[in-house]
Amino acid sequence: MSSPDGTEPPGRPAEPAAVAATGDQAGPKLDLGPVGHLGDRLFSSLAHGSGALVIAIVSFVGIFLLALAIPALADDQSSFLFSRIWEPGGDQPRFGIAAMFYTTVISSIIAMIIAVPIAVGVALFVTYYAPKRLATPVAHAVDLLAAVPSIIYGLWGILFFAPILRPVINGLAAALGWLPLFEKPPGDNVGVVFTASVVLAIMILPVVTAISREIFTQTPVAHREGALALGATKWEMIRMAVLPYGRSGVVSASMLGLGRALGETVAVLIILSVPNANDPWNSSIFAGGETFASKIANNAAEFDSPEKTGAYIAAGLVLFVVTFLVNSAARLIVARSGPGGKRTRRNRSAGGAAAKEGAVA
Amino acid sequence: MAKRIEVSGLNVYYGDFKAVEDVSMTIEPRSVTAFIGPSGCGKSTYLRTLNRMHEVIPGARVEGKVLLDQQDLYGSGIDPVAVRRVVGMVFQRPNPFPTMSIFDNVASGLKLNGVKDRKRLTETVEKSLHGANLWNEVKDRLDKPGAGLSGGQQQRLCIARAIAVEPEVILMDEPCSALDPISTLAIEDLIEQLKDRFTVVIVTHNMQQAARVSDQTAFFNLAATGKPGRLIEMGATKQIFSNPTEKATEDYITGRFG
User: Main role (chain A) (predicted)?
Assistant: First the structure.
């Protein structure tokens, strides 16, 4: 009787008419005509429009980057992907992203290595160890880290935090300096990749913690009690039930954090010292450097000719693609396995049980 | 193997709410004891105090004594983790660890106890799966996930997991309530076999099941909603079902209750 979307049901024929209709074959017909779906139409077009708009914006960003980058790339006299030289503009523009790519990726990876274990630890503390009156403030404090603007992180990082890190840098360099990655160049520079990584780690901590916390609390009571009833200690219970359930969630949370670390601009820009153009390139994390984002931001004043601008935009395009890939990978992992890898497993178990039942029958 | 449980003056609380009041009973070794009673009468809550699983819930606590082989499970210096290694538990819904294979599920308790020797693990897993009447159904797919089994098989897997660590007592909290009649029958047969080696305590809503599998039956009831549950009567299953002393027991068993 009611319309499928639960709008106003069409009126029933009035009682007297129905009574009259009993004797009369040609009684009034039931009113099953359209009831008016203006709201549906409006909302539907609004929803479609919003969806299309988002896709359009992403495509336009991509097209913009491509359109401006391609002419510059065509003029590039050196290998764009593998060269470390950056001399855009002029008659013989030579530029490549290898150095930036390296600094961007290495700083983000170190940030992940620092942030993810801490985030998982904080999430476990908040969900399973802390008494309630402590858990809530800690969770809120971590969330607050996300609200600090990145310019503040940059200033705090270079002025306050970097000097504190100096002993750590010296210690690591002393212990692992035989590896090129940890070799400390002469001088007392603290505006180095490592410092930027630590600050990036703090910046991505909230998002990784929040998602991990969410997934850890969702661990089914049945799994947790199953472990405890076998005589597992709390840590063993976490290892047997909570971590396997939360693994895919933590991975996707880390990927989202990685996406943020890759694109972070202002904090990195302030912290990282730009190496002299004449100095040889240094792969150490205790040297300065430039990420995609910081290089582009540092040289915004140079966007005076289309050739030069195109080179920077080409670099931005690479960052865009890398971030896009990382985010897609995160979504893929989330979609494939859901919270705790539930979806695939449920399908599998349903299939297995069905097959079993079939065999029995 | 198989120890006597003696409970005296046990009160169980959730925060300020008293869920079970003043329970005293003796559970004989190598027997099956069934707890019956209406929903909310505290029989599951009480069951969970016998391996200190009750206190996993925040705010939950217990007063009184639970003696297992003359040792008070709630005495000072008793580690609940150690208690649970001696008093195993099977839950209402089968809960194999979803990321683990069938083999690893059964071996999980042994690994907690520090058993690393592959040969001993393999032997114990096979023995436990035999013990749970599951071996023939899974012997060719021990490396497949435990969650891929049917509900009844999963529950037997959980029983295999529980008996793999050779506990003294096995607690079962409505182990068949999520299963079909055929799987239920398989579990009931299994309980019959288990009592040769273990002390089994089972909570059930199914009166026929209690009558079929148990040697002793305890009837729990509560005076009214919000009042604590109490042990009304306990005795040999035959006597409880044919000639109960208390009127409330008779009413419940004959279905005149609620």
Answer: Part of the binding-protein-dependent transport system for phosphate; probably responsible for the translocation of the substrate across the membrane.
Mean pLDDT within A134-147 = 90
- Disruptive mutation site among B53, B95, B173 for chain A (greatest number of A CBs within 10 Å): B95
User: Is A255 exposed, middle or buried, given 0-12, 13-18 or 19+ CB atoms closer than 10 A?
Assistant: buried
A184 SS3 class: coil
pLDDT exceeding 70 applies to what percent of chain B?
98
pLDDT band at A353 (very low <50, low <70, confident <90, very high): very low
Q: pLDDT at position B162, please?
A: 94
Domain assignment of residue B65, given as a range: 5-95+168-253
Mean of per-residue pLDDT scores for chain A: 83
Q: What is the crossing angle of helices A193-217 and A98-124, to 10°?
A: 40
* Domains: count for chain A: 1
Chain B partners of A230 at a C-beta cutoff of 8 Å?
84-85, 88, 108-109, 112, 161-162, 165
The interface predicted TM-score (ipTM) is 0.90
Helical spans, DSSP H, in B165-246: 181-194, 207-213, 237-242
A361/B contact by beta carbon, under 8 A: no
Asked if the C-beta of A357 comes within 8 angstroms of chain B's C-beta atoms, the answer is yes
Residue B232: which CATH number? Answer: 3.40.50.300
Q: Report the alpha-carbon distance of residue A265 to residue A151 in Å, rounded.
A: 9
Domain that holds residue A126: 87-350
Output the pTM of the full model. 0.79
Can you give the pLDDT at residue B70?
Answer: 87
Burial of B123 (0-12, 13-18, 19+ CB in 10 A): exposed
Residue B110 domain-assigned (yes or no): no
Residue B153: name the closest of A355, A229, A219 by CA: A355
Summarize pLDDT for B169-206 with one digit per residue, the tens: 999 999 998 888 888 998 999 999 999 999 999 999 98
Closest-approach residue (CA) in chain A for B92:
A222
Number of domains in chain B: 1
Residue A132, pLDDT score: 84
Q: Which residues of A touch B99 (CB under 8 A)?
A: 244-245, 341, 345
